[in-house]
Amino acid sequence: MPTNLPPEYYEAEKKFKDAFSPAEKAEAIEEMLSTIPKHKGTDKLRADYRRKLSKLKSEAKSQKKTTRHDSYFHIEKEGDARIAIVGDANTGKSSLVAALTHAHPEVSDSPFSTWIPTPGLLEVDNIRFQLIDTPPITRDYIEPECYDLLRTSDMILIMLDIQDYPIKQIEETLDKLEAGKIAPFSKKHRYDGKSMKFIPMIIAVNKLDDAVFREEYDVLEDLLSEEWNLIPISVKHKFNLENLFHEMVERMHLIRIFSKPPHRPADLTRPFVLKENSTIDDFANRVHHDFSEKLKSARVWGTGVRDGQQVGREHVLSDKDIVELHM
Fold it and tell me: Which pLDDT score, from 0 to 100, does residue 105 have?
């Protein structure tokens, strides 16, 4: 990687990493190419990007049709975190994805209208979540390939229908996940010695559409409150969805870090999203893999520091900190 690339290049590179569609990625590469100085040291870099650009433009013009060798369950990971939505048939998974994203899963009152997973992108508090509506999990069946998709998720959102035996739903869903060696991260202590994939999980109880069902929810919460922190929602009436968003952010322990190029204002439009307790070194690696090796110093504006304070590589960052890296 050439050492004399301007800050504009890294800003465009971040747009490329955040891009969702082939067309967006192609646009970001064009912007990157326009910022790369033209000299012998950058010839290979520019050639590589031109090849990528050609391929992306072809994809943007016509998406390849799925062949018999492809799987609908192989979904490219996009955004800052992936959340798979699981549950029994007709719990409202598809309605939630349709309400929160630009995706168009089939929404129907009849059960089993979702046969393939459908991704959509949701932005909450400057964090982009990839929500995936998955086929129903029932006592008798789960698509085997669905387990592979769930294992790639950063969180699993279990949807329950308050109007249709919710305790039975949660028991059967958790049993099926366990059969695929997937368990809640909060219950990790119960699986000592077992080879399991531990993933943070939250439970949303849907269809609290009137006062009667809200009373039933209170009973359910009394029964499950020692085990789970339930989130009551109504997708139909958009009730309590905001609380659901913030619960997802909190349970995933994510922080947003804003980048500030030297001698320029910070970019507060698109943060880098990292896990809690990430350090300056982690942030530098996230901005670009070369930055950690070449990092000489860093300045931070935010929590627990004087504005613009110089810090070391091991300084632990806080949510919404602004960081200026010096090479």
Answer: 65
